[in-house]
Each structure stands twice: as C-alpha cells, then as structure tokens.
Amino acid sequence: MTDDILKGYRRSIDNIDAALVCLLAERFKITQAVGAYKATSGLPAADPGREEAQIARLRQLSEDAELDPEFSEKFLRFIIDEVIRHHRAAAAR
C-alpha cells in the first residue's frame, strides 16, 4: 500500500466522520425539540416501547447492511441514554 492510497482512504474516513458529526448534530437538535415538547406537555423523558422498537429496527438495518448489530445497538443505546439525559434536564427547568 502506497502512502497515496492510504491518504485516499483516510480522506474518505475523514469525510464520513464529518458527515456523522453533522447527522448527530441534526438528530440532537430534533431530540432537544422533542424534549422541550415533552417537558411542556408533561410527558415522561423516556419511552421504553419506542426505544426498544428503534433498537430492533436498527438491528435489522444493520444486518441488512452487513454491519454488526451488536455494535449498532450499543451505539444507539448510547445516543438514547444521552437524549433521555437531555429530556430530563429540560423537564427540570
């Protein structure tokens, strides 16, 4: 593998990482709006039924994309936990 080939791979990885950050930022903007809505509507911060459905859906998408579903579930659970933390903070305000 030449340095130019490695640089090309790394540029692609950097581009994907940038896209992931932008997507996560957009996702969290929306979930913050959901948290504010839940807080003003008296809804609970967590929705275990929705969370489990999302995890099942993501696991299936992962299998279809030939990505380790265990990894995907851990990733989504991390995001869900962070969203719930934000929702609880919004409710406490």
TrEMBL record:
**Enzyme Commission numbers on file:** 5.4.99.5
Q: Which GO terms describe its biological process?
A: chorismate metabolic process; salicylic acid biosynthetic process
One protein family per Pfam: CM_2
Group of enzyme by EC: isomerase
Q: Which UniProt keywords apply?
A: Isomerase
Q: Which InterPro entries match?
A: Chorismate_II_sf, Chorismate_mutase-related, CM_bact, CM_dom_sf, CM_II_prokaryot
> Domain Chorismate mutase spans what residues?
1-91
> What's a Gene Ontology MF term here?
chorismate mutase activity
PANTHER family given for it?
Answer: CHORISMATE MUTASE
State the name under which the record lists this protein. chorismate mutase
Record organism: Sphingomonas endophytica
